[in-house]
Amino acid sequence: MDSILSVRGVGKTYSSGHRALDSVDLDITRGEIFALLGPNGAGKTTLISIICGIVTPSSGTILVDGHDAIRDPREARTRIGLVPQETVVDMFETVWSTVRFSRGLFGKKMDKAYCEQLLKDLALWDKRDNQIRELSGGMKRRVLIAKALSHEPDILFLDEPTAGVDVSLRREMWKLVTGLRERGTTIILTTHYIEEAEEMADRVGVIDKGRLLLVEEKAALMHKLGKRELTLALQEPMAALPDALADWHLALEEEGHRLRYTFDAQAEHTGIPSLLRKLGELDIGFKDLETEKSSLEDIFVDLVEKDQ
């Protein structure tokens, strides 16, 4: 595995005694999209801030493309682009000057061709002479990404990239992020929008109360932890579940017209054949059935609830 970021034993305890991070270990593979999921206050932004050199850790080590981020933060930081949650730009500067200035902050000589292509890729070229204050919320987000990419970093951190934006703009951002990965950028995003991780991520990490609960490939996580549901459309509505069906995890829905059975797809015996036989014995007919997997949201909620 070609690791571009390695985090070992990173913790953060503030002077108040609040422990924001508890000995986090994490490796990020070069060229992947990694989604860090967690509720508000879970420690997502603290972890990113430590890696980016904004917050000092209480313990642990961080290697960014082989460079020690704690001992040599300047060199490590040149490999990183950060798109924060909040819009932190001079509203009276133009798009072009903002990107040019950001590039210079990292000691990079001006490269007109690169900056022009960057703005074109982000659909900002036509707005290059506009002041930031004249742009829509979505365009301001794009400027933040342009700033973060201005010095040609290998890793791009997106901290809640679509918080507060509408659904259509969110999908535009997803497409943009996927395009960046295709050009070789490693992307790490924090989010509490489950669909964001489900749409884009190669791997998913779940963090809560400062502890990294798990890190898994998205498909493997859903395969291993996901449940399935069998839904039966009944021929006749049921007022209540008979006692004879108490051995199965069943729920009546849509005023008794549908019967839902939740089961573990990885179990040796799912209970479906015996359930269908029992329904036949009880003379409960159905006209249709369908199965579906649980979503990443279901898995996330289960994990966080178990951590309470």
State the CATH architecture of the largest domain. 3-Layer(aba) Sandwich
| CATH class placement of the largest domain | Alpha Beta
* CATH topology label of the largest domain: Rossmann fold
Strand order of the largest sheet: 6-7-8-3-9-10
**What letter string, H or E per element, gives the SSE order?**
EEEHEEHEHHHEHEHEEHEEEHEH
Largest sheet: 6 strands, mixed
Helix content estimate: 25-40%
Main structural class: alpha/beta
GO molecular function: ATP binding; ATP hydrolysis activity
Organism: Stakelama tenebrarum
InterPro entries: AAA+_ATPase, ABC_transporter-like_ATP-bd, ABC_transporter-like_CS, ABC_transporter_ATP-binding, P-loop_NTPase
Keywords: ATP-binding, Nucleotide-binding, Transport
Any overview of this molecule?
The chain is an alpha/beta fold. It folds into 2 domains: 3-223, P-loop containing nucleotide triphosphate hydrolases (Rossmann fold, 3-Layer(aba) Sandwich), CATH 3.40.50.300; 226-306, Alpha-Beta Plaits (2-Layer Sandwich). It contains 10 helices and 14 strands. It has helices spanning 44-51, 73-77, 95-105, 112-121, 137-149, 167-182, 194-200, 218-225, 272-281, 296-306, and strands at residues 3-13, 19-29, 33-37, 59-64, 67-68, 80-83, 155-159, 186-191, 203-208, 211-217, 228-234, 250-253, 258-263, 286-293. It has a 6-stranded mixed beta sheet with strand order 6-7-8-3-9-10, with helices on both faces. A hairpin with a 4-residue loop joins strand 12 (250-253) and strand 13 (258-263). Helix 3 runs parallel beside helix 5 (137-149). It is elongated. It starts with a strand and ends with a helix.
